[in-house]
Automatic annotation (TrEMBL), chain A:
<keyword id="KW-0813">Transport</keyword>
<dbReference type="Pfam" id="PF00496">
    <property type="entry name" value="SBP_bac_5"/>
</dbReference>
<dbReference type="GO" id="GO:0030288">
    <property type="term" value="C:outer membrane-bounded periplasmic space"/>
</dbReference>
<dbReference type="InterPro" id="IPR030678">
    <property type="entry name" value="Peptide/Ni-bd"/>
</dbReference>
<dbReference type="InterPro" id="IPR019546">
    <property type="entry name" value="TAT_signal_bac_arc"/>
</dbReference>
<dbReference type="InterPro" id="IPR006311">
    <property type="entry name" value="TAT_signal"/>
</dbReference>
<dbReference type="InterPro" id="IPR039424">
    <property type="entry name" value="SBP_5"/>
</dbReference>
<dbReference type="GO" id="GO:1904680">
    <property type="term" value="F:peptide transmembrane transporter activity"/>
</dbReference>
<comment type="similarity">
    <text>Belongs to the bacterial solute-binding protein 5 family.</text>
</comment>
UniProtKB/TrEMBL annotation, chain B:
<feature type="transmembrane region" description="Helical">
    <location>
        <begin position="100"/>
        <end position="123"/>
    </location>
</feature>
<keyword id="KW-1133">Transmembrane helix</keyword>
<protein>
    <submittedName>
        <fullName>Peptide/nickel transport system permease protein</fullName>
    </submittedName>
</protein>
<dbReference type="Pfam" id="PF00528">
    <property type="entry name" value="BPD_transp_1"/>
</dbReference>
<dbReference type="InterPro" id="IPR000515">
    <property type="entry name" value="MetI-like"/>
</dbReference>
<feature type="transmembrane region" description="Helical">
    <location>
        <begin position="240"/>
        <end position="266"/>
    </location>
</feature>
<feature type="transmembrane region" description="Helical">
    <location>
        <begin position="9"/>
        <end position="30"/>
    </location>
</feature>
<keyword id="KW-0813">Transport</keyword>
<comment type="similarity">
    <text>Belongs to the binding-protein-dependent transport system permease family.</text>
</comment>
C-alpha cells in the first residue's frame, strides 16, 4: 500500500464511507499496527474514541479489601518531580496523576484531561507549535479542593524553575504554558514539535496542587511538607510513608472515575531483591504484585508451578545492544582514548563488523537466557511497531562470517587468531556485572573463537559502569574498549529523543565530559539530515520513515548490533487483574486494578 | 575516676574527627555517582544533571565539602539525603526502633541460650552434653546468617507456610492480633541472628567458666560444705561473667547498627538496610551519617565497657 492509497482510505473514513474499525483492519493487513493507524486518523482529523485499556468489572467503588504491592527497590520520596528512579515514579503515581498516560500499546489515554488534543478538537495547531489541553471537570484533590488550570500552569512554573532542581525540568524548560480558562491550558513551543506529548504526560507529567506547593517553588522546594505527605488526585489517599520502607494509603472516596478504585487500602513495601520478591508473590502469596523482575526466566517458571501466581510481560522501549567501537580505544589523543580523531585498526573495516554481527546467536540468547524477558531483534527501535525497521534482519552463521573474513584478507595465524598486516582480531568486550550479560558474553565469545576472533571479556560493576564519573575509565560513555554491551531505555513511545544518540552533535568526548549521548562515536551526515528532518516533520507517516532511516543507517553499518528488545516482567497473584505498561510506570492505571 | 573519664572523652574527640575525615575522603574517592540513574535517561539533559550536581554542592573540592559537612554537623545539621531529600536525622530515627527491637531481642535470645548452656557445659567438661554443645556452637558460627536466613525462608515460609518472610513495620491490626502478627514476622530474623550470636557467646561463656572453676577459692567454697548449686551460681558464675559482660557491652554498637545482611534478606527496615540502600544509591550524606553514628557508638561503648569492667572487678584501678 503506498502513500496515496493510505490517503484515499483516510479520506473515506473521514466521509464516513469506511468505518474506523475496517480502516484499522485494512492497514493492519499491510503490517501497520493499530496505534499507528489511530495516530494517522487523529492526525488527519478523525476523532478518537476514549478507550479503556483493561476491562473493569466491579460495579461499585471499594469493597476490594487490601492491595499489597512489593517493590524490591524501596521508594525514597513521593514528589513526582524529584523522582529519579522508577521506584519513586511508581510510588508517586499512586497519589498524583498526569493529564494523560501511556497504555501498553503506546496509546495516549486521558487521565486528568477531558480528551486527548487532536486536530479535530482544536487541540493541535496546524503549525505544530501549540497544544491546547482541556482539563476534566469535577476532579477533586484529596483535600476536597477542585483541580483547575491554575494547578497545571503552576506545575509548569515549578518544574521549569532550575532552582527547584526537578528531574523533569527537561520537559518544561523550553515551553510556555498559559491559562485559557478555568479548565483549559495552552502550551506554546518555540519550534514546531511533532512529539508534543511530553509535558503533563506520563512519568514527567504529574500535576501538583498549587495550594500545597505554591510557596515552595525554586530553592525552597525541599522544605515543602507535601513532599512527604502528598495531596494529589489519584485513586488512593496518603496515610503514612517511611522512606525506603513502606507506604500505606486508603481509598479516595471522591475519585473522579466512577466505580473506581476497587481496593479499600493499599500498601507498598520496598526492599530486598528481585528473586525473593517474585517468591513472595508466586510461592507464598504474601503480596499481590511485584514489579520489574529481572530474574532468569527459568527461575520464574519454577516458582510459577506452585499455581499461586502468574507472570506478565509487556513490551517496552528497552533495547539490549552491542556497540562496535570505530575509534581507537588504545591510543591517547589530546588526553582521551577512543577519540573521534582516531580510527580503530580493524573495527573501522565494515567487513569485520559485518562478520561479528553474524557471530551473535540471538535466538539462543533469547531462548536460554532471557526467555520471556526479551525478544531477539536486529532493529534498534522495536516499539511501537510503526517505528520498527522491517528491512533489518539478523542471522547467525559462523560459515558466512569465516567467508567474509577470508575474502577480506584476514588470515588465521598459528594461534588460530586472524590477522591482516600484523593487526590481530583481538578485542576487549565490556559490559556491566549482571548474570544474564555474562552468559551472553560467553555465548558470543565462543562463536567468535570459531571464526578466528579472540574476545577478552571484561565486566564492570554497574554503579561504576553507568556513572558519569569523569575520572573513571570504565564508564560506558568513555568506551575505552573495542566492544561493549548494555541496555538503553526509550522512555516514550516516540523514538525521536531516544535516537539523538545517533547524531554527530551528541558524540561523547572529553570536551563535553563524556555526557554526549552518542556513545558509539560513529556519525553519518545522512543520519543527521534524516534526524533533523524528522524533528520538523508533522506528518506521522513521513516522520516514522525518517526515524526508521536513522536507525537503519547505524544498524546496517554494524556499529550498533541490537540483541534483544527487552520486556517488562511483573508477577501477580492469580485473582488480581492489573494493567502495567512498558511506556509508563506500573501504577499508571492503578485505579482500574481489581480482584475477582 | 572523674579525671579518667574526662581524659578518655577528650581523647575521643580527635579520634572521631580522624574517623570522619577518613570516611569522608574514602566516600568522595569511591567510584559511583548519586545521579547515575539519570545518566541513561535521555529525558534528563546533561545540563540539568550538571545543574543538580552543582546545587547539591558535588562539584566543590573534597576539603571544602568536608569542612562544610563538619560545620553543619557541629551545629546539629546532619544534611539531607540525595535520594529522598529529607533530613538524615529523621531518616535514622525512623529506623532505630525496629533495629533495637529485632537486634535487641536477638541478643537477649542469644544470652538466654548461651549462659545456661555454656555454664552447664563447663561444669561437666568433655561430657556428652559438652561435646554436643560444642559441635552445635561450631556449626552455628560457621554458618553465615545469609545462609541460615534463606534456609529458614525455604523451610518455614515456602514449604511449611508458617511465617511471612517480609517484615512490615505497619501492621494493620490491633490488640492481641498485633502482638501475634509482630511475633510471627519477627521470629525468623530474631532466631537467625540470635542463634548465630548464641553460638559464639556459648563458647565464650564456657571458656570463661572453665578458667575460674579450677581456682582455689572454688575449692575453698566446696570445702566449706556449700552445695554444688550455690558454688556454681554464686562463686563461679559471678566471677566468670565479668569478661562476658564487657563482651556484651562491646557488642552494643552492633545492636544499634543492625544486622545488614539479615535485615536485607527479611526486608527489616532497620539501620543496616538503610545503610545498604544508601550505599547502592551512592547517597553520600546518609552513608556518612550512619557510619559516623556507628563510629561514635563504638567509641562510647568501648568507654562504657572499660568503666563497667572496673566497677565489676575491684582489682582494676583507673589511676
Amino acid at each position: 500500500m503506498n502513500e496515496q492509497d493510505l490517503r484515499r482510505l483516510i479520506a473515506n473514513v473521514k466521509d464516513g464511507a469506511l468505518s474506523r474499525r475496517s480502516f484499522i483492519q485494512k492497514v493492519a493487513a499491510v503490517g501497520l499496527a493499530a496505534p499507528l493507524a489511530n495516530q494517522m486518523l487523529a492526525f488527519n482529523g478523525v476523532a478518537m474514541a476514549q478507550n479503556a485499556t483493561v476491562e473493569y468489572k466491579p460495579t461499585k467503588a471499594g469493597g476490594g479489601g487490601p492491595l499489597k504491592i512489593l517493590l524490591w527497590q524501596a521508594p525514597t520520596l513521593l514528589n513526582p518531580h524529584f523522582a529519579s528512579g522508577t521506584k519513586d515514579q511508581i510510588a508517586s503515581r499512586i497519589f498524583f496523576e498526569p493529564l494523560a498516560g501511556w497504555d501498553k500499546e503506546g496509546n495516549l489515554i486521558p487521565q486528568l484531561a477531558a480528551e486527548i488534543p487532536s486536530k479535530t478538537n482544536g487541540g493541535l495547531s496546524a503549525d505544530g507549535k501549540e497544544v491546547i489541553w482541556k482539563i476534566k471537570q469535577g476532579v477533586k484533590w484529596h483535600d476536597g479542593k477542585p483541580l483547575t488550570a491554575d494547578d497545571v500552569v503552576f506545575t509548569w512554573e515549578y518544574a521549569a524553575d532550575p532552582a527547584t532542581a526537578a528531574y523533569t525540568t527537561g520537559a518544561y524548560k523550553d515551553i510556555t504554558v498559559t491559562k485559557v480558562d478555568e479548565h483549559t491550558v495552552k502550551i506554546v513551543f518555540k519550534e514546531a514539535t511533532p512529539f508534543w506529548a511530553d509535558a503533563f504526560v506520563g512519568v514527567t507529567g504529574q500535576i501538583l496542587p498549587k495550594h500545597h506547593f505554591g510557596e515552595y517553588k525554586g530553592a525552597k522546594s525541599r522544605e515543602a511538607p507535601a513532599n512527604l505527605k502528598p495531596v494529589g488526585t489519584g485513586p488512593y489517599k496518603f496515610v503514612d510513608f517511611k522512606p525506603g520502607d513502606i507506604i500505606t494509603a486508603e481509598r479516595f472516596t471522591d475519585y473522579h472515575v466512577k466505580n473506581q478504585p476497587h481496593f479499600d487500602t493499599l500498601e507498598v513495601k520496598g526492599g530486598g531483591d528481585a528473586v525473593s520478591a517474585a517468591r513472595a508473590v508466586l510461592q507464598t502469596g504474601e503480596f499481590d504484585y511485584a514489579w520489574n523482575l529481572q530474574v532468569e526466566d527459568e527461575v520464574l517458571k519454577r516458582m510459577e508451578t506452585g499455581g499461586r501466581g502468574k507472570i506478565s510481560a509487556v513490551v517496552s522501549g528497552d533495547i539490549e545492544f552491542i556497540i562496535l567501537n570505530p575509534t581507537d580505544p588504545w591510543t591517547e589523543v589530546d588526553g582521551e582514548r577512543s577519540s573521534v580523531k582516531t580510527k580503530h585498526p580493524t573495527l573501522s573495516d565494515p567487513k569485520v563488523r559485518e562478520a561479528i554481527n553474524l557471530l551473535i546467536d540471538r535466538d539462543s540468547v533469547q531462548k536460554f537466557i532471557y526467555g520471556r524477558g526479551g525478544i531477539a531483534t536486529a532493529s534498534f527501535v522495536n516499539e511501537p511497531k510503526q517505528f520498527k525497521s522491517q528491512k533489518l534482519k539478523y542471522e547467525f552463521s559462523i560459515d558466512k562470517a569465516n567467508k567474509i573474513l577470508d575474502d577480506a584478507g584476514y588470515k588465521k595465524g598459528a594461534d588460530g587468531i586472524r590477522e591482516k598486516d600484523g593487526k590481530k582480531l583481538k578485542y576487549v568486550f565490556q559490559t556491566s556485572i549482571n548474570a544474564p550479560r555474562q552468559k551472553t558474553q560467553a555465548i558470543i565469545k565462543q562463536a567468535c573463537q570459531r571464526a578466528g576472533i579472540d574476545l577478552e571479556l571484561k565486566s564492570v560493576t554497574a554503579s561504576v559502569f553507568f556513572s558519569s564519573d569523569v575520572a573513571n575509565p570504565d564508564t560506558y560513555t568513555k568506551l575505552y574498549v573495542d566492544m561493549e554491551m548494555y541496555t538503553t531505555t526509550q522512555p516514550q513511545p516516540d523514538p525521536e529523543r531516544f535516537l539523538n544518540q545517533f547524531t554527530s552533535w551528541e558524540v561523547a568526548t572529553k570536551e563535553n565530559k563524556w555526557l554526549g549521548r552518542n556513545v558509539s562515536r560513529y556519525s553519518d551526515p545522512a543520519a543527521d539530515e534524516a534526524y533533523k528532518a524528522a524533528q520538523k516533520e508533522l506528518d506521522p507517516v513521513k516522520r516514522a520513515a525518517l526515524l526508521i532511516k536513522v536507525n537503519e543507517i547505524f544498524c546496517e553499518a554494524n556499529i550498533i548490533l541490537p540483541l534483544l528488545s527487552r520486556t517488562r516482567v511483573a508477577a501477580s497473584v492469580n485473582n488480581l487483574t492489573h494493567d502495567h505498561s512498558g511506556w509508563d510506570v506500573d501504577t499508571w492505571n492503578l485505579a482500574a486494578w481489581y480482584r475477582s | 575516676m572523674a579525671t579518667y573519664l574526662l581524659r578518655r572523652l577528650l581523647i575521643a574527640i580527635p579520634s572521631l574527627l580522624g574517623i570522619s575525615l577518613i570516611l569522608f575522603t574514602v566516600l568522595a574517592l569511591a567510584p559511583g555517582d548519586p545521579f547515575s540513574e539519570m545518566a541513561t535517561n535521555p529525558n534528563v539533559p546533561p545540563e540539568v544533571r550538571e545543574a543538580i550536581r552543582a546545587s547539591f554542592g558535588l562539584n566543590d573540592p573534597i576539603m571544602v565539602r568536608y569542612l562544610r559537612w563538619l560545620g553543619a554537623m557541629a551545629q546539629g545539621d546532619w544534611g539531607f539525603s540525595f535520594a529522598s531529600r529529607i533530613n538524615v536525622d529523621t531518616l535514622i530515627l525512623q529506623r532505630v526502633p525496629t533495629t533495637l527491637f529485632v537486634v535487641g531481642s536477638s541478643q537477649i535470645l542469644a544470652l538466654c541460650i548461651a549462659l545456661p548452656v555454656g555454664i552447664y557445659a563447663a561444669t561437666r567438661p568433655y561430657s556428652v552434653f559438652d561435646q554436643i554443645a560444642n559441635t552445635l556452637a561450631f556449626v552455628g558460627f560457621s554458618l553465615p546468617t545469609f545462609f541460615t536466613g534463606l534456609l529458614f525462608i525455604l523451610i518455614f515460609s515456602v514449604s511449611l507456610d508458617w511465617f511471612p518472610f517480609v517484615y512490615r513495620s505497619d501492621i494493620a491490626a490491633t490488640g492481641w492480633r498485633w502482638y501475634w502478627e509482630m511475633f510471627r514476622q519477627a521470629i525468623m530474623p530474631i532466631c537467625v541472628l540470635g542463634l548465630f550470636q548464641a553460638a559464639s557467646y556459648t563458647r565464650y561463656v564456657r571458656s570463661a567458666v572453665l578458667d575460674v572453676i579450677r581456682l582455689d577459692y572454688v575449692t575453698t567454697a566446696r570445702a566449706k560444705g556449700l552445695g554444688e548449686k550455690t558454688v556454681t551460681l554464686r562463686h563461679i558464675t559471678r566471677n566468670a561473667l565479668i569478661p562476658v559482660v564487657t563482651l556484651v557491652a562491646l557488642q552494643m554498637p552492633a545492636v544499634f547498627g543492625g544486622a545488614i545482611v539479615t535485615e536485607q534478606i527479611f526486608r527489616v527496615p532497620g539501620i543496616g538496610s538503610l545503610l545498604i540502600d544508601a550505599i547502592l544509591a551512592n547517597d553520600t550524606p546518609v552513608i556518612m551519617a550512619v557510619t559516623f553514628v556507628f563510629a561514635c557508638l563504638v567509641v562510647i561503648f568501648n568507654l562504657i565497657a572499660d568503666v563497667l569492667y572496673g566497677w565489676l572487678d575491684p582489682r582494676i584501678s583507673f589511676s
